[in-house]
Design goal:
It comes from Mucilaginibacter lappiensis. By secondary structure, this protein is mainly alpha-helical. The protein has two domains: 39 residues; 171 residues, Lysozyme (Orthogonal Bundle), CATH 1.10.530. Helix content is 56%, strand content 2%. The longest helix has 38 residues. The protein is globular, with a radius of gyration of 26 Å.
Amino acid sequence: MIKKEMIKKHLFTCSVMLVLVLISKLNIFSTTINEKVVSTGDISHRNSKFIFIKSNANAYNFANEALPVNDARVTRKLKVSLKQHNFKTVQSTILHRKAEKWFPIIEPLLRLYGIPDDFKYIPLVESGLCEGTSPKGARGLWQFMPGTARTYGLKVGHGVDERNNLRKSTIAACKYIKELYGEFNNWTLAAAAYNNGSVKLERAINKQNEDNYFRMSLNRETGSYVYKLIAMKAIIQQPKKYGYDDYFAMTPPSPLLNFN
């Protein structure tokens, strides 16, 4: 009788151990699958019904935030922006030449302030093809209005205009962008707010009850702004794909710019 009880206990113990082994196997398998899923992309995005591109060398994205791919309107706007910035349209290598001059100064400052590298394309979109003062009074690579420039530490007036100083204006832009991100908690919206102003963007978000840039209805300029940044990124990173075969020729810096 005692022997039978011992056999039963032994069988029960073996059964429990077998179950534990199987559970452990399942957990390991589950963990492995999850790691593979995570490793396929490092894209962050807000809640959306859209399908998003995963992060890879050929994906279109801004600041590593996803671009929806199953929306015909998004696809159309991106194609239009890419066409506007290809060599056949621009007929100049000026954008690549300016990137070579500006980026070595802009990139380390963006890193210093914890801002994604893709924001370096803002000066190319804002003032890449034509420098100077806009009809509204914005000036410099980052196209600061006088009041905004002063708010973020730039001297404007009395014969001094630090909006044309590449380093100082970039630092001011970093402070502004960081503040916009703190308000919207999203880099794409921060870029849109840089163009349109945080008050107007916040009003649009509340009115539309929507905080995904790609699904929002914005004014024409702001509604195409991030697409321009994505297109600029594409042509700088893959020049030959967009017709820029001979962009290494350098030109002297513009006399309007102060790099110190």
